[in-house]
Amino acid sequence: MTSSAWGLLALLLVALVVLGWPLGRFTAALCDGRLPRWMQRIEAPLYKLAGVAPGESMHWRTYALALLAFNAIGAFVVYGLQRLQGLLPLNPAGMAAISPDSSFNTAVSFVTNTNWQGYGGESTMSYLTQMLGLTVQNFLSAATGIAVAFALARGFAARRTDGKGFVGNFWTDVTRITTWLLLPISFVLALFFAGQGVIQNFDAYKTVTTLEATAYQAPKLDAAGQPLLDKAGAPVTEDASTTTQTLAMGPVASQEAIKMLGTNGGGFFNANSAHPYENPTALTNFVQMLAILLIPVALCFAFGRVVGDLRQGWAVLAAMTVLFVIAVIVVIPAEQVGNPVLVPLGVDQVQSALQAGGNMEGKETRFGITASALFAAVTTAASCGAVNAMHDSFTPLGGMVPIVLMQLGEVVFGGVGSGLYGMLIFAILAVFIAGLMIGRTPEYLGKKIEVHEMKLTSIAILVTPILVLAGTAVAVSLGVGKAGIANPGAHGFSEILYALTSAANNNGSAFAGLSANTPFYNALLAIAMWFGRFAMIVPVLAIAGALAAKKRLPVTAGTMPTHGPLFVALLIGTVLLVGLLNYVPALALGPMVEHLMLWK
């Protein structure tokens, strides 16, 4: 870790606390329904039009059914837009209908906040599909995750209860989160990005003259315009060059803002945040990292306010921060040390004002190694698939860090909402383990953790490892799975493991050396994304309902404190032991053995 790397990390963490604290206060007000009258007046017509009673709390089962129905409808809409986009307006490049398997995968991907992309956005999606389908789901999937976090926080905070497990109103939560949290911040971010050079237009794609000609080999044609063949039947080529290039246009800034803020990650362009029209400067790169982690940090502060003890929010945030810093101080040096095969040849030594040497393969020179490696840690600590570098080109240990951050369950800050409720699931497990050690019935925030809650907690924790490991096993066992591997051996295994890890944990980034836009992978990854999202949300809501139905017990001399350094250490240990140990054998077969082979 260089001094500039430490400085960038410190600046990011300080900015997150400074901005997250007031945002957490406002988010807690949203959760508790403490809104100014003028906001309530604006909301009222929306609720009346939808036939929703905003003050009517739902039982957790009703809340879960509403959530599932809402997201299922969203998936059908996104699927239909892709299949019909050739007949719809705002399609300046004349994009045709997308194949059924790719449409299915993309619909599930954006509804589950994963934003896995097996396609190039600028060559596949029309402007209408990008805006009405993908951007809208960026808002709604983010709002869904935050709503679940709200429900769980209310379960812990409930003091007086009738024993019926009411956790709030899903329709009210989604409306308020979208209207008062996501939209205003996204609007400000979009204006900032546009001011920095991120494009926002409805123009046709532009053909421009390049600064220098690009040489290539073109087939030589006969007088009839047919390719000439040599005696062996091979095409005859000749030197040629082109001085033009087609530049894709589109409404990018508006999608860029919410894809970062909502930890979605789907790029308007195939190169995602490495594209100069999505991420043009070092300043936009820093603001994008800040936007990814802003709401997850604010939700920790909001949680402390909702449960009536700010120290609880700080404890959860401290555990997340320690794990994140550990990841950063592994991934940046791993990339700075470079590739041992290339170092003696001197071919990877790149000098700039920001960094010197190291593994620059797959990275943008305007960001350098430090900002690229930090971005990789940020985007995989959160469930955001945005990337500004090619993770497939990282060193084995550098590439293992994003995999591990996802395999921990996307709880190191995590996605909007999903990071908080995922970490709280580990907190429940941590107090249960502590209770076993001291022979007491475990309690967390005054709520007894009993058999029912532990069964639900076990389901929530085991869902993603089962999806990742079983899916990887299926892919490496079948010919259709192995057909997508371009790099046989340990790295090819890592590519498949990364894909299933990313899908099941709703991240969306990729080791893009794997050719995953096939019917097999589109179906397999869609299954992992759907169940990785909703097979965890439903048990979490069930836990919220169970906690809300219990009376909150007073603190006694025997109550284990859950806000101090000891609990933070216990929580970190639980995340590492339970969240990561499932994957150690798979990691040994992929990035670990690749590292040993590279440095032998």
How is this structure best described in words?
With 600 residues, the protein is mainly α. It has a domain at 415-598. Helix content is 60%, strand content 6%. It has 19 helices and six strands. The protein has helices at residues 3-32, 37-50, 60-84, 100-111, 121-124, 127-157, 170-196, 252-261, 282-306, 310-336, 368-381, 396-407, 418-438, 451-477, 479-482, 490-504, 519-548, 565-580, 584-598, and strands at 58-59, 166-168, 206-219, 237-247, 443-444, 447-448. A two-stranded antiparallel ribbon has the order 1-2. A two-stranded antiparallel sheet has the order 3-4. A hairpin with a 2-residue loop joins β5 (443-444) and β6 (447-448). The longest helix has 31 residues, at 127-157. The two termini are 24 Å apart.
Largest sheet: 2 strands, antiparallel
Widest sheet: strand ordering:
1-2
Q: Decide which structural class fits the backbone.
A: mainly alpha
Low-confidence stretches: 350-355
Beta-strand residue fraction = 5-15%
Order of helices and strands: HHEHHHHEHEEHHHHHHEEHHHHHH
- Arithmetic mean pLDDT: 90
Care to count the β-strands? 6
Task: Give the % helix.
Answer: 55-70%
Q: Mind telling me the C-alpha Rg?
A: 25 Å
Tell me the span between the first and last alpha carbons.
Answer: 24 Å
Principal-axes geometry comes out as: globular
Number of H- or I-type helical stretches: 19
